[in-house]
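Predict the structure of DUF305 domain-containing protein.
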Amino acid sequence: MVKPKKTILLTATAVLLAFPLAQAQGMNHSSMHMSDMSSMDLSGMKKLQGKAFDRAFMSAMIPHHQAAVDMAKVVLPVSKDATVKTWANAVIKDQNREINQMSAWLKANGGTDANMAKMMSGSMQGMASMVKSSKTPDVAFVQGMIPHHASAVDMANLALQQGSDQTVLKLARDIVKAQAQEMYDYRQWLKKRGL
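Done. Here is the predicted structure for DUF305 domain-containing protein.
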């Protein structure tokens, strides 16, 4: 059965609202930086409209996606869980494809918004090292991907409201659909482990 688009957005919102409780119960204090990500400050983007918004969104989403790819590359060689390996490979494949798409779009539409890219790169620091330093890298990866995806869904929802370019709108919709489902799957995986 295909879910209506409204339901998908509501599901994503429900996941975001449920996240702080899960974070308080499941994440260790060494990953407090991740909690900052789930409440990312989007006020700068909210002030933009039209092509300026579209460029800012694409410019921010590239380093955001790259951080997930880096984290997936760190967990793959040490993962002991087939499901986590499947997820990590999917993150690398899907987000690299979207990075290439966004890079091509930016090249054709005025180039990268350097300030937005730099701000996002700075806020993504430490994600891969969080997995690398964990005694349970599979758990660290899954717990880290939840707030990471939540912040991507936040940005994508904003793009669905304020974006003007068809490519931006479609990418934002695809991010919401895919990453809300992945957050749900991650939560179920953690729940089965009592986390």
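Residues 1-38 have pLDDT under 50 and may be disordered.
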